[in-house]
Specification:
228 residues, mainly beta, Pectate Lyase C-like, 10% helix, 57% strand, elongated
Length: 228
Amino acid sequence: MKTLRVAATLPALLLSFSALAEEQTRQTGDFQGISVGGGLKARVTVGPTSVRLSGDPQALEHVQTEVEDGTLVVRSKRGPWKGSSRITLTISSPQMTRVEATGGAAVEAEATATPTFTIESSGGSTVSVSGLDSARVEVDASGGTNVTLKGRADLLAAEASGGCQVYGEALSLKALEAEASGGSEVRANPTERVTAEASGGSTVQVDSQPAQRHVSTSGGSKVRFPRP
């Protein structure tokens, strides 16, 4: 009998949880960049301007969305909290040229063509950007974050510190300027030039054979190239 009662109760509980979910559309101005914090997760696509949130109604009350200097800033009023995992952000904009993630946030974004695309990631966050098409891609990663890049760029300028990883193997690239410190790792495959500085047990991994190489290492760090 107890088994039957539990089985009968489960559908009702599932319906109850579904009923609790709420979807909101936030009205904002136009933006070309996004900044996400507080452990929130966001999916960013290229399209008409739209900001949608779904999740527990009480959790949604703690999420702020506002445009500051052309950047949509999404954060929780109380910083990272357990309720952030129950929220889904779906965002779109005709232009996307900058992504920032802080405080354990996770952002998956599509880029638009722009002379310079900027990525900042800190505090255990995760950023993945696809569709890059820029003369210059700038990455500043700190505090145990992961950044993944896909697309095309003439130059990748990457700075990674404090146990970060920057994965640029899927970025078609002419030149790399990398600084890695504090146990960080930068991976990329430039075809023409590498300028790399690694310190504090860090690694810069290059799986291509660029003709121009300017390398500096210290503190057990490495800049690796494939054998000819």
